[in-house]
């Protein structure tokens, strides 16, 4: 029995998005590529579509062999985040690969790649994930608190023993990490998938001034059918996007995109604080200086949906807000993001805490020793900053428990 031609070019169109994802193409573009191949098969014949798919497959294999032979498939990663970040098709959200346990000497933070200035702060790092792909040393074991948030909760650039769950545990607070880079709609998804399998835990939400107000929320507010289609494509191509070919291509593309800005010094500013170089991401500095926020519709809607499940919300300031008094003491910074969050919390009846004062106080104390609460070459807080935040979080939770 001969296979119908429509089945041949239809299959070619279905396979193409996975192969294109293996080359690092985004899910949307990969889907368009699959539609294009199917249309080509319809117009030019099944043989043309099959030849194109075979060429893509052979090229992908050759690409992988070259990367493996040169060692670029591993050398491209300067920290575990890029190496293990993935799309988890089980829960239809982003996370790390599950059951990872590695140690790595991290040569620098995320800002060194964006500037020619020598700011590298090498450090050893232990990186581990649980069965759900979040940075916990073990699977969920009935911890009463779930920490929701972005790369600050995930602990980008910081070793496992200094993350929020560990620093809270040192203060008698048992918590599980559900942090991964994203926006409030992602944190909502992390919580929903957790709650679908576990009962009894309570949620704490951490929102970062630099990119949670509202860029990473509104960007994902799309029509339900488009969101569903995007999830299905991500689910189908997740394995191919984990390939070294996909990761290397995406990493190189990001670096090329930043070359002009790096040469012009448009991405990072370096100041001397305590006689040491302290780097600031200029995009976050700009966000810190905002007098007013842009349209917050997507953020507000997601926050309202999540609020009934939240016991407390914590505001994480930018590095510049914490260190501005030592960099530009004459500047009077506005606090637009916090004002909006505080108003949203009052409206929803959720306790809300600004971590700025705690981080400034700890920073001032550490500067006497030439130490910092942020990695000097990174946009993220280090173990000392996390510890200062954990102290304030533990105090807040103790007060909440006392009222109940």
SSE arrangement:
Elements: H1 5-22, H2 27-44, H3 46-70, H4 72-75, H5 80-84, E1 85-88, E2 93-96, E3 101-106, E4 123-128, E5 145-149, H6 151-154, H7 164-169, E6 175-179, H8 184-195, E7 202-208, H9 215-218, H10 224-241, H11 244-264, E8 268-273, E9 276-281, H12 282-288, H13 297-306, E10 310-316, H14 319-327, H15 336-348, E11 352-354, H16 356-367, H17 383-403
Parallel strand pairs: 5-6, 5-7, 7-10, 10-11
Antiparallel strand pairs: 1-2, 3-4, 8-9
Features:
two-stranded antiparallel sheet; Rossmann fold; five-stranded parallel sheet; 15% strand; 404 residues; alpha/beta; single chain
Q: Please, could you describe this protein's structure?
A:
By secondary structure, the chain is α/β, with parallel strands linked by helices. The chain has two domains: 5-70, no CATH class; 80-403, 3-Layer(aba) Sandwich (Rossmann fold), CATH 3.40.50.1110. The chain contains 17 helices and eleven strands. It has helices at residues 5-22, 27-44, 46-70, 72-75, 80-84, 151-154, 164-169, 184-195, 215-218, 224-241, 244-264, 282-288, 297-306, 319-327, 336-348, 356-367, 383-403; strands spanning 85-88, 93-96, 101-106, 123-128, 145-149, 175-179, 202-208, 268-273, 276-281, 310-316, 352-354. A five-stranded parallel beta sheet has the order 6-5-7-10-11, sandwiched between helices. A two-stranded antiparallel ribbon has the order 1-2. Strands 3-4 form a two-stranded antiparallel ribbon. A hairpin with a 4-residue loop joins strand 1 and strand 2 (93-96). The mean pLDDT is 88.
